[in-house]
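Re: your question about Sulfur carrier protein FdhD

S., sorry for the slow reply, the queue was backed up all week. Below is exactly what I fed in.
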Amino acid sequence: MPLLPHISQSQVALTKEVQVLDERGRLLTISIPAERALTVYLDKRELLTLMTIGANPEALILGYLRNQRLIRTLDEIAAVQVDWDVNAVAVTTHHGVSDIEERTSKRVVTTGCGQGTVFGGLMDEVDQIHLNPDAKIRQSALYRVVDTIRTHPSIYKKAGSVHACALFSADGELIYFVEDVGRHNAVDAIAGKMWLAGMAGSDKIFYTTGRLTSEMVIKGAQMGIPVLLSRSGTTEMGLQVAEQVGMSLLSRCTGRHFLLLTHPQRLEFELDHTEATLAGDLLKA
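Result:
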């Protein structure tokens, strides 16, 4: 287990009550998600500014640094300190980050809600990722994931306007649930939580309410997760990257419906005899 950095335990309101008028002119009080800027300083160098509701800022920053491959191991980090009085987070490393100027010179604005940003070299490292070839997901576990998301308490149910990501065990047991203004923030926060816990992703299932874009697939792959689910769809590049790294993508996961897009060998169907025979024939076709 690596030496853990000193982590602040910041807290901030996640929603705000506002007054609105409905279609009949009635005055109502509703909740809306908070959204605030958080500027990241890495060894006193301004790196970027993220928009977030502020639910898991320390984990968000750790996951972002991990998924961007700016920090390779947790014991390189001395401290992560969030200060909401100035909307900033100071990340201090023990020995600095080599070639930081070159590694952050090229930025790509992603399709993520809330405008995600990735640094340009991530796609170059996809060939180095190898996911667990033996990881499986049972159909019943898939349904358990979907049902858990449907019934789990959330900011979305109270205030809307946020995305959620969640990490599950292979049996469909919820491990982490995170909401933020963009799915890229939520996945980074889970990556940070996994990093702090020393948790491997090789036998896990990841769920997102957002699209399965290349960014989401790459981040999931970097976390070592072989199965990625969404209630939404996918993009062409997301599909291509998933095929390349050996990840199973399942989209349109609502109720008992889903679409299995890549690497069908990971899914263990649990159907009656007629349906199982038909599914087997289709997979062999």
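The longest strand covers residues 45-52. The radius of gyration is 20 Å.

Happy to talk it through on Thursday.
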